[in-house]
Write a structure and sequence with these properties.
By secondary structure, this protein is an alpha/beta fold. The protein is 52% helix and 15% strand. It is built from 14 helices and 13 strands. The strands form three sheets. The chain has a six-stranded mixed sheet with strand order 8-10-9-11-12-13, sandwiched between helices. A five-stranded mixed sheet has the order 3-5-4-6-7, covered by helices on one side. Strands 1-2 form a two-stranded antiparallel ribbon. Helix 4 packs across helix 5. It starts with 6 loop residues before the first helix and ends with a helix.
């Protein structure tokens, strides 16, 4: 639909940018926020169009879904208030992931649940149970657990992670030029994500990013490769270690410093940072235009600068002329009528005599000049 022609319909559905993809299902309207590729859009349509909660009737079906999905949410138990909450959360967050229900018999014997009913997430080679007293609301818990503990991060994923409210611990590396240092940092962050899950999972997401271009534009600075950085996407703050990370103990200490507030925070979304962001974006836009098309860049930015320069020159010249006239007027105001007549007579005499006579007059004695 052309929303510019049907602005009322666009306003009704809260459309603020183009293109916008929505899936209408009953009284609900779901926004598509994934990558703009055919496969991802089809996956979104199939997931949202189906039931919010899908049943897993057998062990074979459970094993199949476990292999197919990196993150698997399952409700276990009969009718309960928790099931109602789970259904509501599934209807809301099905745009991001699948939701299933099953009986306890479909799980392997290694899976033991402390009590029923329960909501379980299977990921990272293990499983974790929702605790109503420790994990706050079910919706918040699902939103935070819908990603793997460690994953490759790009610009789109980082935007998605911002909606979880977690800080993001990133190993910035160059996968095209792998170095021993890059592999070591990735391994350290993977180990911390797994071994310190109970301590850091509620507040931190772990991963790595290929290259530093996106990070540099985000923090308006330069991050060396390889290195470790922690981003707070909610307020655009970031944290850098005071010294290179070489051991897991140093990495854990750095993360703890961010958690308890002792680590130095940079950036932010204050007034000064917003001004810097405007200037940085303007400079980046200009540089990108000149890199892609130098002639177009010269025309777009050279022509306005030339016009402004001519205007400034004209204004300055006009002011200087006016100033000289004002000075002459002030001089004349300070003379008497006889002195003004004498001055005008001298000017007329000088014009009649011409330059040669002025030169000869310049050679006369002082007494002759006085006589004249």
């Amino acid at each position: 639909m052309d929303a510019t022609a049907y602005s009322g319909m666009a306003s009704e559905f809260g459309v603020r940018g183009y293109p916008t993809i929505k899936l209408l299902k009953g009284d609900l309207a779901y926004n598509y926020k994934g990558p703009r590729t055919k496969d991802d859009i089809v996956e979104f349509a199939n997931r949202v169009a189906g039931p919010a909660v899908r049943a897993l009737p057998s062990k074979q079906m459970f094993e199949h879904m476990l292999k197919r999905h990196d993150v698997l949410f399952v409700y276990v138990g009969g009718e309960s208030p928790l099931k109602e909450k789970y259904n509501d959360v599934a209807s809301e967050l099905i745009v991001y992931t699948y939701f299933f229900s099953a009986s306890e018999e479909v799980f392997p014997e290694s899976v033991t649940l402390p009590e029923l009913p329960a909501v379980v997430v299977f990921k990272d080679g293990g499983y974790f149970t929702y605790d109503e007293y420790e994990d706050a609301s079910l919706s918040s818990w699902v939103n935070k657990e819908r990603f793997q503990g460690y994953l490759q991060i790009d610009g789109f994923t980082l935007y998605e992670l911002g909606e979880t409210g977690k800080l993001v611990v990133i190993a910035v590396i160059d996968e095209k030029d792998p170095k021993e240092e890059s592999g070591r940092l990735k391994t350290l962050i993977q180990r911390v994500a797994k071994e310190y899950r109970e301590l850091f999972n509620r507040d931190f997401q772990f991963g790595h990013m290929d290259g530093n271009d996106y990070i540099n534009s985000l923090i308006m600075g330069e991050v060396t490769v390889p290195s470790v950085i922690i981003l707070n996407t909610s307020n655009e703050q970031y944290f850098l270690p005071s010294e290179p990370i070489e051991t897991m103990e140093q990495l854990v200490q750095f993360i703890n410093g961010v958690l308890n507030g002792s680590a130095q925070a940079y950036g932010g979304d204050g007034f000064i940072q917003r001004i810097k962001r405007v200037a940085f974006d303007a400079r980046s836009t200009i540089m990108s235009v000149f890199r892609s098309s130098p002639l177009l860049g010269c025309f777009l930015f050279g022509l306005p600068l030339g016009v402004i320069s001519l205007m400034c020159y004209g204004i300055c010249t006009a002011e200087s002329d006016d100033g000289s006239e004002d000075i002459d007027a002030l001089k004349r105001e300070g003379l008497t009528d006889e002195e003004e007549e004498e001055e005008e007579e001298c000017q007329r005499t000088a014009e009649l005599e011409g330059p040669d006579e002025e030169d000869e007059a310049g050679e006369k004695d002082p007494d002759e000049k006085k006589t004249d």
